[in-house]
Amino acid sequence: AAIWIIQDGASSAGSYSIVASSDDISTSSGNADVSFVVASSLGGTLKYNILSSTTAPHDDFCILLNGEKADVVFGQSPTFESRRLDIPPGKVEVTLRHRKNPGDLSRMLLDTLGVVGTEGKTWLDDVRFEPRNN
């Protein structure tokens, strides 16, 4: 596993964002996770800004709700993109996950697919939960 790093530079609001990189994952496949719990009787919307420099099947970014994939992002973003995800009512564990080689493909197969032209990084900024109103 790897960690997310708070860094200055690339951000959509303010001066800082968090970033995860496939280079920081020492194994041939693995994850960098940030998890938190949203407890809301009515549910709501998770909003976030993402800058992606990933290439499937080499790496991607996904959000899990209670361990189940709810959103996947990959590709090259020129700027931060605003995204949103519905969060159901109750206690929900949200995991923000940068994945290196999510399909656990062999090194030989990945090499056959060719050189990757992206950085293998995901930046997140302005992550927030907005509860539903009655």
Keywords:
single chain; 134 residues; mainly beta; four-stranded antiparallel beta sheet
Structure overview:
25% of the residues are buried. The termini are far apart. The chain has one helix at residues 107-113; strands at residues 5-8, 16-21, 30-40, 44-54, 59-65, 68-73, 75-76, 81-87, 90-100, 121-131. Strands 1, 2, 4, 7, 8 and 10 form a 6-stranded antiparallel beta sheet that branches. A 4-stranded antiparallel beta sheet has the order 3-9-5-6, with no helix packed on it. The protein is mainly beta and 134 residues long.
Provide a quick synopsis of the model.
With 134 residues, the chain is mainly beta. The protein is 5% helix and 57% strand. The strands form 2 sheets. Strands 1, 2, 4, 7, 8 and 10 form a 6-stranded antiparallel sheet that branches.
Q: In sequence order, what are the helices and strands, one letter per element?
A: EEEEEEEEEHE
Radius of gyration: 15 Å
Report the structural category. mainly beta
Question: How many beta strands in the DSSP annotation?
Answer: 10
Q: What characterizes the major β-sheet?
A: 6 strands, antiparallel
Query: Proportion of β residues?
Result: over 45%
Average pLDDT score = 89
Helix content: under 10%
Total number of helices? 1
Distance between the first and last residues' Cα? 40 Å
Spatial shape:
globular
- Flag low-confidence runs: none
Secondary-structure blueprint:
Blueprint: E1 5-8, E2 16-21, E3 30-40, E4 44-54, E5 59-65, E6 68-73, E7 75-76, E8 81-87, E9 90-100, H1 107-113, E10 121-131
Antiparallel strand pairs: 1-2, 2-10, 3-9, 4-7, 4-8, 4-10, 5-6, 5-9
